[in-house]
Specification:
By secondary structure, this protein is mainly alpha-helical. It is 34% helix and 7% strand. Strands 1-2 form a two-stranded antiparallel ribbon. A two-stranded antiparallel ribbon has the order 3-4. Strand 1 and strand 2 form a beta hairpin. The chain is elongated and about 110 Å long.
């Protein structure tokens, strides 16, 4: 008589109908028509994490976003100066320099000039993957006491446009525009030093036939959400990047002719207009006529 082998593992049971997943072709048909579709696979080596605040930044240009991604993927110590980046990418040094200024204005890049022990001046570039936050380079135990820490030096603001002619009245109007920005957005509270630096840039806009209200709207419209780490640097970038063209040329108007008062002619007593009392034009012309033969 046959005996049953009890050492054989029981057969795997089939999934219940409620847990069966539909085939891949059936799942593909459930996607909405149109729009982007992603074919993603997980990275395990050689990848860089990029935040959507950078990839979808509403203010940065595509070149600036691309350079930020490239710079964040570089190892520590790699060169990221304008000359090196211009040799790496097809864009020229001018466009790359402008894109780096965008990243600096929005806090994704910090560039400081430092003097080495040999006396040479070098530019130190720091890439920030999250503006406004600072990574911990050392732990708290290795940090010096608060009183012995070096205070970070204030970085210079980007240059701003200059008007063709700076008048005291124009600069006062520019300062008033900058001082009023905080009423539009409290994040745009500027120091007196920052306002003095930005005032010529605002004056250059006013010189191009823009009203103070139009300049204020251009500087405060479409600001990024969240904290503004360097509001003065952001305003300096906008004053330079969005500078409108000069107004069309207009021929100067001729001054109106002078209107002299009415006077009575000394010879004919007829009224005429003239700068001084005397004779009218007819009497003066008769005086110069040749005598009749």
């Amino acid at each position: 008589m046959d005996t049953q082998n009890t050492s054989v593992r029981p057969h795997a049971q089939a999934r219940t109908a409620g847990r069966n997943h539909p085939p891949r072709s059936a799942r593909a048909n459930t996607r909405p028509a149109g729009g982007i579709a992603h074919d993603n696979s997980r990275h395990t080596t050689r990848f860089t994490v990029i935040g959507n605040h950078l990839a979808q930044h509403p203010e940065l240009s595509g070149l600036a976003i691309g350079l930020a991604v490239h710079i964040q993927s570089l190892p520590t110590g790699a060169r990221a100066d304008i000359k090196t980046l211009a040799a790496r990418f097809p864009e020229g040094p001018t466009r790359i320099a402008a894109a780096l200024r965008e990243l600096e204005a929005h806090g994704y890049l910090r560039r400081t000039r430092e003097r080495t022990e040999s006396g040479r001046i070098v530019t130190r570039t720091v890439s920030c993957n999250q503006p406004g936050r600072h990574g911990d380079a050392t732990d708290d135990a290795s940090r010096p006491p608060a009183g012995q820490r070096k205070q970070p030096s204030r970085r210079a603001l980007p240059a701003v446009p200059k008007p063709a002619y700076i008048s005291p009245e124009l600069l006062r109007t520019a300062i008033d525009v900058l001082a009023g920005l905080r009423r539009e957005d409290p994040r745009l509270l500027l120091s007196a030093t920052d306002a003095e630096h930005l005032a010529p840039g605002v004056a250059a806009w006013l010189e191009r036939d823009l009203t103070p209200t139009a300049v204020r709207h251009a500087l405060t419209g479409g600001l990024p959400p969240g904290d503004l780490r360097r509001p003065a640097a952001l305003l300096a970038h906008r004053l330079t990047a969005q500078l409108p063209p000069p107004p069309p040329y207009r021929a100067p108007e001729r001054p109106p002719s002078a209107r002299h008062p009415l006077r009575n002619c000394d010879s004919c007593d007829r009224a005429f207009r003239g700068p001084e009392p005397g004779r009218c034009c007819d009497c003066r012309s008769r005086t110069h006529l040749p005598a009749a033969a």
